[in-house]
């Protein structure tokens, strides 16, 4: 099952500060809902563990995250894949862009993801709702972290 999601968030911070936080594993770990572990790897990415609950399915996903197309402080592409055991798998990526706007920074994102296994059987509406909730939660947490 594939899904896409786009959005933008206005942040009251300079673009360089937002860029720095987008590349800080401690900040990302604190902002990602259910994230238990996020460590930098030698390949310029991260190893991650996150506990997620979507409808009746609860799972601990372990996976890796890679950053590419780095264009400091304008944006990057973040890709990841994770295995959730019996719950299935998730993989996808997001293009993140930063632009100066109204004395702060406008962060825009475009996400494409695929899921399989038990999760994919839950139905498109439930999955999309859960994905939107996770994204909203991440960006609310990230806005707090950036604005200190």
Description of the structure:
This protein is α+β, with helices and mostly antiparallel strands and 148 residues long. The chain is 26% helix and 51% strand. A hairpin with a 2-residue loop joins strand 6 and strand 7. The longest helix is centred in the C-terminal third of the chain and has 24 residues. The protein is globular. The mean pLDDT is 93.
Features:
7-stranded antiparallel β-sheet, globular, single chain, alpha+beta, 148 residues
Which helices and strands occur, and which strands form pairs?
Elements: E1 2-11, H1 15-22, H2 25-31, E2 35-40, E3 46-54, E4 57-71, E5 75-83, E6 89-101, E7 104-116, H3 124-147
Antiparallel strand pairs: 1-7, 2-3, 3-4, 4-5, 5-6, 6-7
Helix pairs in contact: 2-3
Radius of gyration computed on alpha carbons: 15 Å
Instruction: Work out the strand percent.
Output: over 45%
Structural class: alpha+beta
Q: Whole-number average pLDDT?
A: 93
Per DSSP, the total helix count is 3
What is the helix content?
25-40%
Element-level helix/strand string: EHHEEEEEEH
- Give the strand line-up of the largest sheet: 1-7-6-5-4-3-2
Distance between the termini: 37 Å
What coarse outline follows from CA principal-axis ratios?
globular
**Low-pLDDT segments, ≥5 res:** none
